[in-house]
């Protein structure tokens, strides 16, 4: 084998074992947190990331890596809306093109692709009636997971039961509510990655100062610094409500404050 051929084989093998290297082969330089997320072997992974930080690129790389190197696999890309699903799917398509089409495509549409190794990537909007028919999922990606309805989330988790597939949740916060928040706050057996805008070299300090002035502190903290904020129209804070539900909550009185009934 020539030196050039040996180098090519070595690069192919490295792509198989290292999704971060696959991202580099596609022409992108991953940030350290992206390398961490791509190399994680956790069954459940949660990315709490600033807007425009590159979390969708991570999801696209993992989806394509699974399809290319796990023959016969099924990857589902789930988003709250059809438009978001299409955007995530476009990232996968872009990565595939940049890699010079390493495996032939046998069937493709605007929302799904099947490769010659019988792997499929299917992109779906967050509508339960369109999703329940899938089974044996090897990778389930929930994009903008903080905005996916809890009922939908719990209806798709069983798709991983038989295959032992992996689950990836990625999002910016959407208040102290829903599965994405509770999982981040107290979920067990999750690999978590937290990325704020100031950790992303592609987002300038000047831009962040401009956005803070335009958006105000509440929105800015949520969208760029990934803070789980109380809802702006919420009467009682999430922490106060949870304390009220606790068995250790203090009783303020043990008799009717309005006096005995007539």
Q: What does this entry show, briefly?
A:
By secondary structure, this protein is α/β, with parallel strands linked by helices. The protein is built from ten helices and eight strands.
Written description of the protein model:
This protein is of the alpha/beta class. The chain contains 10 helices and 8 strands. Residues 233-238, 240-246 and 251-255 have low confidence and may be disordered.
What's the arrangement of secondary structure elements?
Elements: H1 3-17, H2 19-25, H3 32-39, E1 44-49, H4 55-69, E2 74-79, H5 82-98, E3 105-108, E4 112-115, E5 120-125, E6 139-143, H6 150-156, E7 166-171, H7 178-186, E8 191-195, H8 205-215, H9 217-225, H10 238-245
Distance between the termini: 99 Å
Q: What is the CATH class?
A: Alpha Beta
The number of distinct structural domains comes to 1
Second CATH tier, the architecture: 3-Layer(aba) Sandwich
Helix fraction bin: 40-55%
Task: Please state the CA-atom Rg, rounded to the nearest Å.
Answer: 22 Å
What is the residue-averaged pLDDT?
A: 87
**Sequence stretches where pLDDT stays below 50 over 5 or more residues:** 233-238, 240-246, 251-255
Major beta sheet summary: 8 strands, mixed
Name the helix and strand elements from N-terminus to C-terminus, one letter apiece. HHHEHEHEEEEHEHEHHH
Order of strands, widest sheet:
3-4-5-2-6-7-1-8
The CATH topology is Rossmann fold
CATH superfamily: P-loop containing nucleotide triphosphate hydrolases
